[in-house]
Amino acid sequence: MFDREKAKAVFLRYAEEFDTQNTLIRHKIDHTFRVAELSARCAESLEMNGEDTDFAWFLGLLHDIGRFEQARRFGTFVDSHSVDHAELSGDILFREGLLERFPSEGLPEGWRAIAETAIRQHNKLKLPDSLDSRTLRFAEILRDADKTDIFRVIAGIPFEERVGTSRASFRDTGEASPEVMACVLEHRCVPAVLRHSHFEGRISHCCMAFELVFEFSRRTVREEGWLRALLAETDADGKQIWTDRETEQLRILRREIEKAWGNPL
Description:
Strand content: under 5%
CATH topology of the largest domain: Hypothetical protein af1432
Radius of gyration: 19 Å
Number of domains: 2
Order of helices and strands: HHHHHHHHHHHHH
Shape: globular
């Protein structure tokens, strides 16, 4: 049987090698544990056996381990300003040997190859068509769990605390471009090269909803309410947050998500 508590202890010892007073590090530890639990619960919803459910949990624990080194080296979690954090996670685990610190007894046969692929691919715009069905399933579980918690991170944590970079790296204003709205209407994620303003970033993050594969993930997002918060048109006092045109674009996005899911948010 896989020892989750031992794996968690190894993870925390590694995280403590970094500045745990840094808000980036603290938030990333919280995110990691959330993604691990969401991955396991998603696997359970698919009636996977205990070995595979433990493996799904382990993938969540490992998926962002490169974020700690990214924060130390660059002081940001913006990959375009630093390094692809999924590839860095894969390198640290599978090339530099960090994975050997973790327990492996009780994990399914062939888990290492699946883990490396799932971890390196978890932040990519699209999964490769060449993945076998078993690797694809675990990669989808990890990506769903990560996206599900990212809605919470974006809606609930101030920009600088969650990315560690100045807002000046994006325009503060500006409605979404036709190219970004085309992604909305086509029910797909927005490529990073199309995001130039904070509003386009908001649209882009909400478009992750189109990529959720499993009903468990969509149900969790609906129940937690973070996506609704990201699509809100007014603040807590009822004051309009966006321009009229931006508000209309958010309404279009909400309509398309509900259409894609077949359920209201």
